[in-house]
Amino acid sequence: QKFKTLSVLTCTAMFAAPLFAAPAKLSPAFTQGEALIHTMTKGQANVTDTFTPAGTDLQGYVIKSTQGGPAQVVFSNKGKYLIIGNVITPQGVNLTEKYTKELIQSKVAKEAYEEITKDNLATIADGKDSAKHKLYIVIDPNCIFCHLMYEEINKLDLVKNGDLQVKWLPAGFLKPGSLGKAAAMLTAKNPLRALIKDEHKFNVKQEEGGLKPLDQSSKDPIVQEAFAKVKANTAFFSKYGFGGTPTLIFKTQDGKYDYVAGFVKGKQLEALVKTLSAKW
């Protein structure tokens, strides 16, 4: 199922997405299209993956700017034309959307999801381990749309009724106090209570979380460790080029991976939660 969100409902970060290490090795069928891509972009893009859409005479390419930014799906017709934008079949299938999800978004989501556990990034668990569905959410303590996301989850009783367990990943990039507020969550005796306090005392008008930020110059090793964890979370967020908070990262019941950058509400959120895996 497709979940539509308003892309403007995110708190954006000024991060550059990582560069791809090297272009893909192509079969002869794709070399003419690659040459056209290099000509049209003046050598500023690499082909990182290729595919052949069934039932078409097109060649599909995943390209990435050498200067950073998100990957993109484009098509070529035997190197004669470069097609950028939505390519829709007579049956109404949006090939650009389909392959962007399969070859770019799903891959990014899987790598990010696995890294959270593998690198032991700092999270704050909210809800029972026995909850029917599991969800990671990257937040900034001063993000208004993260605040709305938190309120929406609670308004729908998704955690309270045992449907959902959220693991919040506090990052810090929006405002000077963001890093210190996220660190304050992680040093608290009860990090979840600290997160709840930040949300319950959130100043909507000023877009400021309710916690007092810790001082990054503190010599306290516990405080220093908390800042290091928040910086690691923030670097993780930057690495995958998510671009805005909240970012929801998840695995579905059929073992697929995906993410949504933005505030999801109401029936869309309820529908999304029902698709999520019961295991991390």
Question: What this model shows, in words?
Answer:
This protein has helices spanning 28-40, 95-118, 144-155, 178-187, 191-200, 221-239, 266-275; strands at residues 11-12, 45-51, 59-65, 72-76, 82-84, 124-126, 133-139, 164-170, 244-245, 247-251, 257-261. The chain is of the alpha+beta class. It has 7 helices and 11 strands. A 5-stranded mixed beta sheet has the order 6-8-7-10-11, with helices on both faces. It has a 4-stranded antiparallel beta sheet with strand order 2-3-4-5, sandwiched between helices. Mean pLDDT is 92; it is low at 1-8 and 16-21.
- Unreliable residue stretches: 1-8, 16-21
Distance between the termini: 21 Å
Helix content: 25-40%
Alpha plus pi helix count: 7
Q: Within the largest sheet, what's the order of strands?
A: 6-8-7-10-11
Tell me, briefly, the overall form: elongated
Strand content: 15-25%
Task: From the alpha carbons, calculate the radius of gyration and give it in angstroms.
Answer: 21 Å
Largest sheet: 5 strands, mixed
How many strand segments?
11
Name the average pLDDT.
92
Judged by helices, strands and strand pairing, the structural class is alpha+beta
What's the order of the H and E elements?
EHEEEEHEEHEHHHEEEH
